[in-house]
Amino acid sequence: MRAIGIICEYDPFHRGHSAQIVAARTAFPDKAVICVMSGNFTQRGAPSLLRKHARAETAVLGGADLVIELPVHRAVAGAEKFAEGGVCCLAATGLVDVISFGSEIGRISPLQAVAELLCSPDFSEKLRPHLDRGLSFAAARAAAVAEISPEFAGVLDTPNNILGVEYIKAVEKFGFSFSFHTISRLGSAHNSEIESSLPSASLIRSRLRQSDDLALLPEGTANIFLREKSAQLAPSSTELLDRVMLAKLRALSLDEIAKLPDISEGLENRLYRAIRSAKAVDEVIEISKSKRYASSRLRRICCCAYLGITAEIAAEPPKCLRVLAANQTGLSLLAEMRETASVPVVTKPAAYADLIANEVAATDLYAFSLPTPTPVGYDLTCSPIIINK
Hints:
Structural class: alpha/beta
Oligomer: single chain
Distance between the termini: 18 Å
Helix content: 40-55%
Largest sheet: 8 strands, mixed
Shape: globular
Order of helices and strands: EHEHEHHEHHHHEHHHHHHHHEHEHE
């Protein structure tokens, strides 16, 4: 059985995500859907609203057949490493031949053209002057693309386009054989606080942390949110995590900060000074940020510091495919993957503790964001969620 692959966070799973799965299934009706989803920490460098197994369950209820965990060191990385991790996981299944994603532009050809441009010698030459004038890498890259090919100006100004380009680059880099499918991103813009019938995930998270505003959610997500909240396992709170994370940051030496992912050009000194004067993680980021160092980059670095992810760990490829949830079709996919997968398929976490050690440790630290912390080693006790439908 061949499958469509979706790289996602589902934080939380909402109607826009459901619409993407429906569109992918409509375009490829003979294929199953395999999702590679971030775990308990996301690309924002923050804890997910719901724990990973609950989010995987919402994904299966929302149309996915199988949900696999994106290793934590890739889940909290910038767009390039996040995309590479997801693409490598999909390739490792041996079953996926199409990658589907939402994008603001809604068309593959301009994303492919930009991906090709970013790998050209001309791009490197045009990028340097923009970096030299103090722009962040993301801003400098977008400016260089606009300079080389004005028709693509603005393509790299939006997050889903950026990820789409990175998926295409990753496939080319590793020589994988995937085709691509994209739909126009539906609903409010990324991080938008605007009310709409398809609000942004950030607005939904904000509302659910304040009240049970379940009208914004599909029925399956709403029911699981209430179940998790009743069990004191949701919603996560960045405020609860703040002092624990700050304590970990304060314990780091300058040399240890220098070994974190995405540290360059003396950024470790800037962070080291900020950590020693700040009274909260947000203050560390506020003191450290500049035109060159975006707050999103700094937040991911702080998250990696909290989780013990060094630059060396961040460069590692996925070691296994950890299964979080599946339906009956997903179980059939798993049976095939026992033969086709290029890395171990993990359904019994305790038996593969060495391969998922980073995820187990991340779950132990995620626990501090929950209303009632889970015990040490909790992740090793969590088997995949099986939906019998």
